[in-house]
Inverse folding.
């Protein structure tokens, strides 16, 4: 998670009316058409219907409408959020902390979900997933992120999965805790802390001791460390993989190197 937009709250479920309000215009139009068609076969809805519809049929249709419309609304909402998270939605600026907005251009969203070969630099692996939502990566298992973790707090889930894929740590050390990842890198895997001036591609940046973690992508021409990781940049506050040019240039960071 991005430190300037830290959210420790799990994603909450929205009730059907609120979820329906969030649907895109195209989905709202489809939903309205379906609702209209249902009402036309249901006399109890207040809309004119065929005179041949009997009372039993009316009661049945009314029950079906009551049951199906909330389900359809929830389905449209889920589809809308899935599309938004996986490449068709927008993003915010990550709270102005230097996190680059997720670019959902065709070439940046990993639309083919091509398999990622194991081994190599952790930053290379992370970069292949740039623009992808945490939910999408979990669903496709491009790197072995754990299921069931809130998509608002997936930074360690992503970073440790990338390190496992790169062969830097064993799969048994995958963790969803920043503090645990830091401790095991230092005390089990032989990593050590280095100064910012010695940061290199593939190093790990720990923020605030145990608040956030990302991978070092590169050092720019001004000497600023650019990170890549799972950050809270999507409109609903959930995470996607993007580059971050601000977080590592604060005081409360530690650079760990193999």
């Amino acid at each position: 998670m991005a430190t300037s937009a830290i959210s420790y709250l799990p994603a909450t479920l929205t009730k059907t009316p609120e979820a329906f309000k969030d649907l895109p215009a195209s989905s709202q139009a489809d939903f309205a058409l379906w609702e209209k068609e249902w009402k036309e076969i249901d006399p109890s809805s207040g809309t004119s219907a065929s005179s041949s519809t009997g009372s039993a049929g009316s009661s049945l249709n009314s029950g079906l409408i009551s049951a199906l419309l909330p389900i359809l609304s929830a389905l449209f909402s889920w589809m809308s959020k899935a599309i938004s998270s996986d490449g068709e939605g927008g993003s915010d600026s990550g709270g102005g902390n230097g996190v680059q907005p997720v670019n959902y251009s065709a070439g940046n969203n990993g639309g083919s979900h091509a398999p990622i070969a194991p081994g190599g630099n952790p930053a290379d692996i992370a970069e292949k997933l740039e623009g992808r939502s945490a939910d999408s990566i979990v669903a496709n298992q491009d790197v072995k992120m754990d299921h069931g973790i809130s998509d608002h707090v997936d930074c360690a889930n992503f970073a440790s999965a990338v390190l496992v894929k790169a062969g830097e740590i064993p799969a048994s050390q995958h963790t969803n805790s920043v503090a645990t990842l830091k401790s095991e890198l230092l005390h089990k895997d032989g990593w050590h802390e280095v100064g910012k001036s010695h940061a290199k591609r593939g190093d790990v940046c720990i923020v605030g001791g145990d608040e956030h973690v990302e991978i070092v992508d590169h050092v720019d021409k001004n000497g600023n460390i650019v990170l890549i990781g799972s950050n809270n940049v999507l409109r609903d506050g959930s995470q996607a993989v993007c580059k971050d040019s601000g977080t590592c240039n604060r005081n409360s960071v530690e650079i760990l190197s193999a």
About this structure: Residues 55-88 form the longest helix (34 residues).
